[in-house]
TrEMBL record:
NAD(+) binds at residues 92-97. Homodimer. This is Redox-sensing transcriptional repressor Rex. Residues 81-182 form the CoA-binding domain. It comes from the Bacteria. Keywords: Cytoplasm, DNA-binding, NAD, Repressor, Transcription, Transcription regulation. InterPro entries: CoA-bd, NAD(P)-bd_dom_sf, Rex_bacilli-type, Rex_DNA-bd_C_dom, Tscrpt_rep_Rex, WH-like_DNA-bd_sf, WH_DNA-bd_sf. It is found in: Cytoplasm.
Length: 216
């Protein structure tokens, strides 16, 4: 009988890279063990939430001892596949796209932008921030050639769905969507949407309500 796979809640999954980053910081400072309370203070996440998240992966710590930092760093590195870099394509080299390319992710994460596409680029490509940039007409050819499964989308909203349909046709598995529309995709593609204007409006709302609450 096959071993049953434990389903990790999405909220927990999104926090895993944060745990890995902060545990790396502890390890780099020479710390050998850490409690959920110490992690809570550093990360500003409730200690009960941290213990609950960790419990999905079995006994990662011991009562009265806490968590072995080096073990957790190794565990989360393996869980997040940090030892194997993932190649990413960027579509849309405007202000936000340029920022992504200048930063590139491989310096701090296990992802790296290896190719980009923009309507102003020539079909035979040009180099920006050490990354080749091609005209969008080359998307299918280049993504297939490089075997890229993950794409960052920073294009005008009017172009987003049409580009997404093309990405689906070449087997892309994940899209990080920075446009303002909700993309329609087949079940084989996972989309994470980050709408900066919505996040800002949400922050303003909470700030204003915090002020109202403090006046009660």
């Amino acid at each position: 009988m096959a071993e049953e796979t434990v389903k990790i809640p999405q909220a927990t999954s999104k926090r895993l890279p944060l745990y890995y980053r902060f545990l790396q910081n502890f390890a780099n400072s020479g710390k050998k063990r850490v409690s959920s309370s110490e992690l809570s203070e550093a990360m500003k996440i409730d200690a009960a939430t941290i213990r609950r998240d960790f419990s999905h992966f079995g006994a990662l710590g011991r009562k009265g001892y806490g968590y072995d930092v080096d073990y957790l760093v190794s565990f989360f590195r393996k869980t997040l596949d940090q030892d194997e870099a993932t190649d990413v394509a960027l579509i849309g080299v405007g202000s936000l796209g340029h920022a992504f390319m200048k930063y590139n992710f491989h310096k701090n994460h296990n992802t790296r932008i290896v190719i980009a596409f923009d309507p102003k680029a020539p079909h035979d490509g040009k180099i920006i921030s050490d990354i080749p940039v091609y005209h969008p007409d080359m998307i299918e050819e280049k993504l297939t050639e490089l075997g890229i499964d993950l794409v960052i989308l920073t294009v005008p909203s009017r172009a987003a769905q049409q580009l997404t349909d093309r990405l689906a046709a070449v087997g892309v598995k994940g899209i990080l969507n920075f446009t303002t529309i909700r993309l329609t995709v087949p079940p084989s593609i996972r989309v994470h949407t980050i709408d900066l204007s919505v996040e800002l409006q949400s922050l303003i709302y909470f700030i204003k309500n915090d002020v109202k609450d403090s006046q009660l």
